[in-house]
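Dear support,

We are seeing what looks like truncated structure output for some complexes. This example has two components. We would appreciate it if you could run it in full and send us the complete token output so we can diff it against ours.
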Amino acid sequence: QSALTQPASVSGSPGQSITISCTGTSSDVGSSNLVSWYQHHPGKAPKLMIYEVTKRPSGVSNRFSGSKSGNTASLTISGLQAEDEADYYCCSYASISALIFGGGTKVTVL
Amino acid sequence: QVQLVESGGGVVQPGRSLRLTCAVSGFTSNTYAMHWVRQAPGKGLEWVAVIWHDGTEQHYADSVKGRFTISRDNSSDALYLQMNSLRAEDTAIYYCARDKSVWVFGVPYFYYGLDVWGQGTTVTVSS
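Here is the complete output from our reference environment:
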């Protein structure tokens, strides 16, 4: 169960768009639509931002969007805002009834 | 409101045991699978275990298989994690989380996402 691969950090200026990639294998991301994304501010509970690759829970801004191609899922944040600065984790169902998280990406708003 | 509150963390010596509890409120716990997720100091999130809505199935990360046991008592709205043979690498903040379970014609489907999280409880394994 190796962690999904995410870039360690991504940065952008306010108003810009950024994309975080999440690369897995054909045993997890590639074979599942059960990919989710979480926002985590240190010291707080993680927050579900995207589920089933593209769906947004009620209350999550439409500036957050998800997609997937092959073994790589992506989270795009458009109109970047200061409060978007946080750690972001992807997560995928794996074929062994488990969940696998990515290593996490620190988003910095310049 | 929907809430998860973890308790039971603390400092424990290597090789000893600890039991974490997650108190559930604000929703009908017996219709949701539940998970434990942890975060070691300076590291990312790591999935630990899942238990189905009725407790009939449990699955574990390889790193804890054979040492940790997830269980639940729906009559008490509680989730547990029994941790045995603790190691230094088990040091982490432990979160319980609700699975965004989906029911279709009376059949549950899990792993759709973790939509409710607790604030976490800290476990430190050190001599």
